[in-house]
Amino acid sequence: MNDTAFFYIQSLKSFLTIQAILRITLVIFLMPSCNQLPEINESKGKPIAKLNGSILYQTDINKLIPKGLNKTDSLAYLQILIDRWADNEVFYQQANEYLTDEDLNVEKELEAYKRELISYKFQAKLIDEKLDTNVTISQIEDYYTSHPQNFILKNNIVKVLYIKTPLKIPNLEKLKKLCYSTKPKDAELLKTMCVQYANNFFMNDNTWLMFDDLRKEIPQLKEVPEYAIQKGKTFEFTDATSFYFLKIFEIKSKNTLSPLNLEKNNIKNMLINQRKQLLIKSIKKDFFDKAKTNKELKIYN
User: What is the mean pLDDT for each group of 10 consecutive residues in the chain (301 residues)?
Assistant: First the structure.
């Protein structure tokens, strides 16, 4: 074994599993010295491991190790990369031995993949350069009004005040009273107490939440029938460790039309995706027509 191989084995021993040590030791042990390997590309740096005619170089590894790691973490990450290379290379070489020449002939697949990849990159560049991504509120509203069938709720949604605190906190009764208050000053005080004591809370009455998500947060809510979940209703629950408060500001039932403000982002994305498709379709047609006009395209009968 040469000095380079010995150095890497000693550096990695404390991080490798027994199987990994045996695997990498075997691979490196089979690697003769650099002077005996005319196939080594010295411009790529020192070889770390070799399996038959395949060589892993230090430069191949260095560019994959994240910057900023300390020496210990770098060696640990190095171990992972070498082990992964050995696993993949052994499997790949076994595949070459096992598969027939017909199986190994992947030129057509590679050419098809190359064409798809180049076309995809070209399409992405065209979209980046030419697509108008500005969507107005008016356009969103028009789409929402014209396609109501696309925005039917599959689950109940609610606007709520929700608070969960440990059962034993100072001034729990005061917190309860603040929950029922409608004064802006009390709302600020309630938020301050929640920040200090609550395990979880939600106080944005302009945002819709999935009711099923609340049921996951409040186990006792699973026992409450859906017809009892109405606008203005309040609920208090306790268990062995926690106090829960819930006030329903508004509710939208499943199978009804989803609110516009909940769908704005979805509609914007849909409109932009439609524009992408139309843009690429238009560009492809222009290229096609130009090729016919210039007699670059010839279709044989």
Answer: 41 41 42 48 80 87 83 88 92 94 93 96 96 97 96 95 94 94 94 95 93 93 90 94 96 95 95 97 96 89 75
Task: Give the residues across from 50 on adjacent strands.
Answer: 55
Question: Does residue 142 form part of some domain?
Answer: yes
Give the per-residue pLDDT at 15. 39
What per-residue confidence (pLDDT) applies to 91? 95
In a domain, 108, yes or no: no
221 contacts 237 by C-beta, under 8 angstroms: yes
Tokens of 269: 């994305």
Residue 270 domain-assigned (yes or no) = yes
Rounded CA-CA distance 183/181 in Å is 6
Alpha helices of 14-106 — where are they, by DSSP H? Answer: 18-29, 58-62, 71-98, 101-104
Task: Look up residue 261 and give its two tokens.
Answer: 């403000």
Number of structural domains (the chain) is 3
Domain CATH for 237:
3.10.50
Query: What is the sign of the dihedral through the CA atoms of 32, 35, 41 and 47?
Result: positive
Q: Which of 252, 273, 289 is the last residue of a domain?
A: 252
Q: Are residues 93 and 233 in the same domain?
A: no
How much is the pTM?
0.65
Q: Are residues 185 and 143 in the same domain?
A: no
Residue 32: its pLDDT value, please? 41
In a domain, 40, yes or no: yes
For residue 49, the enclosing domain spans: 3-101
**Non-local CB neighbours of 1 within 8 Å, separated by 6+ positions:** 9, 28, 29
Handedness of CA 246, 247, 249, 254 (dihedral sign): positive
- Decide if 176 contacts 236 (C-beta within 8 A): yes
